[in-house]
Backbone:
């Protein structure tokens, strides 16, 4: 048996700072995954998994939008961009429930949350 075996592969040796920089380029600067992997000399599969983990982590931290916030945001987006919205949206200043159900059907994994009651610490 070899007492001190020399490592022959370079897997798992990418510094976290390099992965962070590459992920920032992908997410914030609209660089493709392949271009960022080549620029930072990172395995593309490693970069893909790192970006997915950071996206899931940020979704868990911020919990997404509540349904009322999403409906209000859709209404504001339509008004700001000059998109015609139904008249009943103007009455409540938010999108209707049917729009929200259609949105859920179109999106596979929308990041929505249910408001939770807060427990007071004793």
Residues:
């Amino acid at each position: 048996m070899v007492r001190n075996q020399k490592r022959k592969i370079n897997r798992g040796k990418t510094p976290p700072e390099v992965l962070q920089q590459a992920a920032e380029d992908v997410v914030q600067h609209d660089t493709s995954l392949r271009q960022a992997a080549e620029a930072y000399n990172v395995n593309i599969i490693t970069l893909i998994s790192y970006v997915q983990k950071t996206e899931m982590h940020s979704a868990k931290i911020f919990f997404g939008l509540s349904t009322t916030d999403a409906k209000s945001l859709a209404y504001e987006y339509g008004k700001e961009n000059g998109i015609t919205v139904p008249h009943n949206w103007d009455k409540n200043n938010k999108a209707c429930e049917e729009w929200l159900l259609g949105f859920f059907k179109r999106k596979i994994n929308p990041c929505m949350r249910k408001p939770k009651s807060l427990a007071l610490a004793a």
Observations:
- The mean pLDDT is 80.
- Residues 67-106 form one domain.
- The helical segments are 16-28, 33-40, 44-62, 67-80, 87-92, 97-106.
- The first helix runs from residue 16 to 28.
